[in-house]
Automatic annotation (TrEMBL):
It holds the Pfam family GMC_oxred_N. Signal peptide: none annotated. It comes from Calocera cornea HHB12733. Keywords: FAD, Flavoprotein. The lineage of its organism: Eukaryota, Fungi, Dikarya, Basidiomycota, Agaricomycotina. Residues 89-112, 271-285 form the Glucose-methanol-choline oxidoreductase N-terminal domain. Its cofactor is FAD. This is GMC oxidoreductase. Residues 631-652 are annotated as: Disordered.
Amino acid sequence: MQVKEVDVIVCGGGPAGCVVAGRLAYADPNLQVMLIEAGANNRDDPWVYRPGIYVRNMQQNGINDKATFYVDTMESSHMRGRKAIVPCANILGGGSSINFQMYTRASASDWDDFKTEGWKAKDLVPLMKRLENYQKPCNNDTHGYDGPIAISNGGQITTLAQDFLRASEAIGVPFSDDIQDLDTAHGAEIWAKYINRQTGRRSDAATAYVHSVMDVQTNLHLRTNSKVSRVIFEGNKAVGVAYVPAKGRTNLGEVKETIVRARKMVVISSGTLGTPQILERSGVGDAKLLKSLNIKVVSDLPGVGEQYQDHYTTLTLYRVSNASVTTDDFLRGDPATQAKLFEQWEVSPEKALLSSNCIDAGFKIRPTEEELKEMGPEFNKLWDSYFKDKPDKPVMFGSIVSGAYADHTLLPPGKYITMFQYLEYPASRGKIHIADANPYHVPSFDSGFLNNKADFAPIRWSYKKTREVARRMDAFRGELTSHHPHFHPASPAAVRDIDIETAKEIYPDGMTVGIHMGTWHRPGKPYDASKVHEDIKYTPEDDKAIDDWIADHVETTWHSLGTCAMKPRAEGGVVDPRLSVFGTTNLKVADLSICPDNLGTNTYSSALLVGEKAADLIAHELGLQIRVPHAPVPHAPIPKGKPSTVAPRYTV
Ligand SMILES: Cc1cc2nc3c(=O)[nH]c(=O)nc-3n(C[C@H](O)[C@H](O)[C@H](O)COP(=O)(O)OP(=O)(O)OC[C@H]3O[C@@H](n4cnc5c(N)ncnc54)[C@H](O)[C@@H]3O)c2cc1C
């Protein structure tokens, strides 16, 4: 049925958009809601719902189309001439259909720092609880148990997690049973996952909020593979949207729009990189830019597309003992391992290795007074103004992945862990703006990565911390040279690759094991973690090597936010505390673009929370009441038995 008019149109089916569309449609079966998503429908896609395959969704291989890759328009001098690449979701469910499923929450002060009525942490805790089906034991009262989003430890926790926690304790990061209590900023934990413990499936927002409602009601109209080109205004009032086929192929690139009218409200939730583009194409943005592109100005808002923020990831690889359980053989594509693990998932998803992201433990950390002295004037200035009086704000996040998060064709054989660290509150800022009004054209994008010097010191500090943790793990067997800074070979900080015993175990009959360039000094002596008592000492030259490596390697953490900030219009704000776009009526923004400042967390929880808050605000304006609990989430539990997926490689 070609519906041409509804009450509410939601543009973009990421977590926030799914919450808004699903909650409103479920609140009133007579309210007609349309959700328009540029990517494909995620329903029953095995490459979405099986948690352990998540890295594959980042492949650009011509078949997989689950992400849009934004590339810096200009090379950056801050990254030694590199361009950053920022993939973001292009599928129903948005990031929640392809993300790493790590459950983390922002600190209470992050929300309080929005300085916005109704958005303080104490206002939001009931909504945080409303969205959760928390499946872990818990000793505090900040989690919820009846919501649609399942959170658990997944099917398995590898023993490397306990090894990591013990080593973290040894360098002064204490274990805690829950560091997602909105308060803890220095502690380690077994990391929870957006995975349903009973079904072994990913907890994506579309299954939880949209498919659930579409299974029981007929008032939620879904359009996928459809890209919103612009909002239609009558004067300043949003009365509908125009969308185009997601790919312009059939029309030879010509823009063929379909118009749908909205009787009551248009909500834009196309993500931090998508939303500002729709606004600008619709005439909402910096008047100077819009006029230069011949776009009629509806509201002059110079803040649209500005203040782009992310978190900065660096990954380091360490070798671990051959006895360790890692996903390396699975990720390499070893047929026997893949067949075994896929079958295990089909038969017993509730306890399968693939019912996990294999990111089982991690920490949030703040530097000590002593460590701050080493972190230079730029970061210390930031510390004094931003962190010092906010003890709930972590500076860095670190976690262990049981396997190499890297291209295995470039790695030597063996087993690995990845130390995955990211900077929680970068001082750097970027921006995104359209280059013209054509929805198929790529925008002008400046990630701004590392353009503030204060961002180097905490990443350098954290590289050292995670390296000290790795060295103290019982499973540690060396540092993979290619995935570390290039220290001078004579420096005490120089990395030491695989140890001789592990090398011999990998190639028992190998004739070259132990030979390096005709000499006999690599691999080195066997490692003994119990003998590691001293931290590695770094010279200024070593620090420079780390900084160069940071410039060469910092990547997105896929946590984009901030391009349509909720703050006063005079300060560059785009939306007010009710998420209404300044200078317009019947138009709201609901996604992470509204954040006026960074959030020290993996951001899925925050996107859901923004969606829940937006649903409340809109329901109130429409005179509706949100219904709890939400409609039952489909696929829970799934039937057990013989595998139905015979050859996983062919089930694209
Ligand atoms: C690879 C990856 C890994 C991540 N890992 C984690 C993790 O482990 N834990 C965690 O907490 N967070 C993680 N995140 C972050 C988290 O998923 C995001 O913060 C969250 O999805 C943001 O939600 P959103 O609703 O703001 O926007 P998005 O998720 O970006 O959704 C926006 C949606 O709008 C659609 N869209 C864009 N333009 C248009 C248009 N013109 N018309 C129609 N539709 C449009 C997009 O296709 C997309 O589906 C990860 C993200 C990615 C991409």
